[in-house]
């Protein structure tokens, strides 16, 4: 048939079989056999750690957990059918001699860290999958040392045992998906090597039950088995047409690549973490002191993990699972970046208390919205306020501060550190997110009252020298008048800046900041004050950055800000108990309008 000019060209729609075949060809072309991946999984991890610390448990069937739930069981107990995530009372029925040991996450984290020290020697970029599991790319290790993957695996297992006293199982394969399957084959205390050879891979995968594949759980297995009669990985290829017809591209690609024995071979780039969390499951309880204690433990773990990764965050999310298995999350965005156990615990407890009374079986804490720079707020490499002042064309003779003067200034933070954040804030102001975050940092470092002191220092060091700065700054500068006075000092005799921006801070509907839209419950009184201080600081910096170019004096606009702040405070004071009745929804950051 001749197709006339302009007639639409009609191509026959490919059949699912054709689509599947094409996909299989494409996937096959992407096969990479150049990498050697090792998956390591500690044996009966929690149970083994407990036995290591209490050798009297050796040889006895034991489980880690409680009568309501067990986390894992040693291999002696597994002979009786005792398994992880089984209620303890059932495990006890299966094995009446079962010894129960309560969980101790500190211990498991400690031993996990010991294993990771060994992993690092083989692959500094190893991927930790959980406390007791990791993926290591041992390609270089094998090639550089002229060792086979089998030798490296055996050596690694031996090193782990010598340095921790614990045994592990290892799988080696050309990709991570297969390596994980392999580590389970000779468990416990064994290894299985799948060579980097296409034939070996396809033979290995062909008869493998689909359930063995990470990512194919009970539900997927049931659908594939019951609906399509797919039991083995090979059958995923044979029934590829059905998969193409029934599932999304993404799922189909996954199933077909499993059928071919393909998996990830690249080391994922260290993505910037978005969040970090810790959670605990326990027997359902409504006992408030007990819940608060558990929350404190979780806060400690989270804080430790954050410290390890040098993370400071400002959005804290509390996850709760009630006795009736309802899952709730409650989030609160803070004015500053936090990391310490105490701070996390303080805010988390506030959020939890708003939910109580409640019977809970799980609690978790997640921290997100991290500082960009990952440095401690006292990073000495950061700019000082003096340099900030200089860069802002405000003459300052000193670039740093005499420490003895500093100490009377603030009993906790040194001014050099505090100054840092002002400058960072200013430099980052292009990004709203940074702007808010870093300004909170300003509060973190300086604390709201110290901010004003810092500004005063800037002025006095400029005009009168450092020695004068102590005047008034060792006291808490929490009154508007004090701040006004100091800010006047800062602006000194110069007529400055000019921003037509009005800062009219108030809390809309009781909890939304009228300036930036952040939501904060009225019960967060201190945080609200810090927030007001933040806007004040932000404004001062804006004023400073356009120093001398506008119509208003800096004093005037600052006074406006202070007035707004004072109004907000009055509002707060006039309804001191309002926060106690605010619905928990108030903790959510619904629309981060200006964040
Ligand atoms: N874990 C848990 N709850 C689960 C499964 C596991 O708390 N449902 C904990 C306890 C385990 C640890 O995680 O010790 C590691 O999990 P694994 O699945 O690797 O199990 P084990 O290491 O205990 O045993 P295996 O020898 O099978 O790896
Ligand atoms: Mg394990």
From TrEMBL:
Primary enzyme class: transferase
UniProt keyword terms in alphabetical order: DNA damage, DNA repair, DNA replication, DNA-binding, DNA-directed DNA polymerase, Magnesium, Metal-binding, Mutator protein, Nucleotidyltransferase, Nucleus, Transferase, Zinc, Zinc-finger
PROSITE patterns found in the cross-reference section: UMUC, ZF_UBZ3
Coiled-coil intervals: none
GO annotation, cellular component aspect: nucleus
Cofactor section: Mg(2+)
Pfam families in alphabetical order: IMS, IMS_C, IMS_HHH, zf_UBZ
Domain UBZ3-type: 506-543
Record field: transmembrane: none
Catalysed transformations (reactions): DNA(n) + a 2'-deoxyribonucleoside 5'-triphosphate = DNA(n+1) + diphosphate
Positions of the UmuC domain: 37-217
Subcellular location: Nucleus
E.C. designation(s): 2.7.7.7
A biological process from GO: error-prone translesion synthesis
MF (Gene Ontology): damaged DNA binding; DNA-directed DNA polymerase activity; zinc ion binding
Cited CDD domains: PolY_Pol_IV_kappa
Family that this chain belongs to: Belongs to the DNA polymerase type-Y family.
HAMAP family on file: DNApol_IV (MF_01113)
Record PANTHER family: DNA POLYMERASE KAPPA, DNA REPAIR POLYMERASE UMUC / TRANSFERASE FAMILY MEMBER
Name listed for the protein in its UniProt record: DNA polymerase kappa
């Amino acid at each position: 048939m001749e197709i006339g000019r302009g007639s639409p060209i009609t191509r026959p729609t490919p059949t699912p079989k054709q689509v599947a075949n094409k996909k299989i060809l494409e996937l096959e072309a992407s096969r990479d056999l150049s990498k050697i991946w090792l998956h390591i999984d500690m044996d009966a991890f929690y149970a083994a750690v407990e036995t290591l610390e209490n050798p009297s448990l050796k040889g006895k069937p034991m489980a880690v957990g409680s009568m309501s739930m067990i986390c894992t069981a040693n291999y002696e107990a597994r002979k009786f059918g005792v398994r992880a995530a089984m209620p303890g009372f059932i495990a006890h029925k299966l094995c009446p001699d079962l010894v129960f040991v309560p969980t101790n996450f500190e211990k498991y984290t400690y031993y996990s860290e010991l294993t990771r020290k060994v992993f690092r020697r083989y692959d500094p970029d190893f991927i930790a999958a959980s406390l007791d599991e990791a993926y290591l790319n041992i390609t270089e290790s094998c090639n550089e040392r002229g060792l086979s993957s089998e030798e490296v695996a055996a050596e690694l297992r031996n090193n782990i045992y010598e340095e921790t006293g614990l045994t592990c199982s290892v799988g080696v394969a050309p990709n991570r998906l297969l390596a994980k399957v392999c580590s389970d084959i000779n468990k416990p205390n064994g290894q299985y090597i799948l060579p980097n050879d296409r034939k070996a891979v396809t033979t290995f995968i062909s008869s493998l039950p689909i359930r063995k594949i990470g990512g194919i759980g009970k539900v997927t297995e049931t659908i594939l088995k019951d609906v399509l009669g797919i039991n083995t990985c090979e059958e995923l290829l044979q029934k590829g047409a059905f998969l193409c017809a029934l599932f999304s591209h993404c799922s189909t690609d996954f199933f077909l690549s499993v059928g071919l024995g393909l998996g990830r071979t690249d080391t994922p780039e260290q993505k910037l973490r978005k969040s970090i969390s810790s959670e605990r499951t326990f027997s359902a309880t409504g006992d408030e002191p007990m819940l608060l204690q558990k929350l404190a433990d979780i806060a400690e773990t989270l804080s430790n993990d954050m410290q390890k990764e040098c993370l400071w965050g400002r959005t804290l999310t509390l996850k709760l699972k009630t006795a009736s298995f309802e899952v709730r999350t409650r989030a609160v965005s803070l004015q500053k970046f936090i990391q310490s156990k105490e701070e996390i615990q303080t805010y988390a407890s506030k959020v939890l208390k708003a939910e109580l009374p409640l019977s809970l079986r799980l609690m978790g804490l997640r921290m997100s919205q991290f500082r960009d720079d990952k440095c401690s707020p006292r990073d000495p490499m950061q700019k000082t306020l003096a340099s900030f002042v200089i860069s802002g064309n405000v003459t300052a003779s000193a670039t740093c501060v005499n420490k003895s003067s500093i100490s009377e200034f603030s009993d906790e933070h040194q001014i050099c550190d505090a100054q840092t954040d002002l400058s960072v804030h200013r430099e980052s102001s292009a990004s709203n997110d940074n702007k808010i975050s870093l300004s909170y940092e300003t509060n973190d470092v300086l604390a709201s009252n110290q901010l004003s002191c810092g500004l005063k220092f800037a002025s006095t060091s400029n005009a009168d020298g450092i020695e004068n700065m102590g005047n008034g700054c060792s006291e808490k500068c929490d009154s508007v008048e004090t701040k006004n006075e100091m800010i006047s000092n800062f602006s000194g005799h110069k007529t400055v800046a000019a921003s037509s921006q009005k800062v009219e801070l108030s809390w809309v509907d009781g909890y939304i900041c009228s300036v930036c839209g952040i939501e904060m419950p009225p019960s967060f009184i201190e945080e609200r004050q810090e927030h007001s201080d933040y806007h004040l600081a932000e404004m001062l910096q804006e004023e400073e950055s356009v120093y001398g170019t506008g119509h208003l004096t800096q004093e005037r606009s600052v006074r406006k800000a202070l007035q707004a702040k004072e109004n907000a405070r009055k509002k707060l004071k006039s309804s001191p108990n309002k926060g106690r009745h605010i619905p928990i929804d108030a903790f959510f950051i619904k629309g981060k309008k200006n964040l």
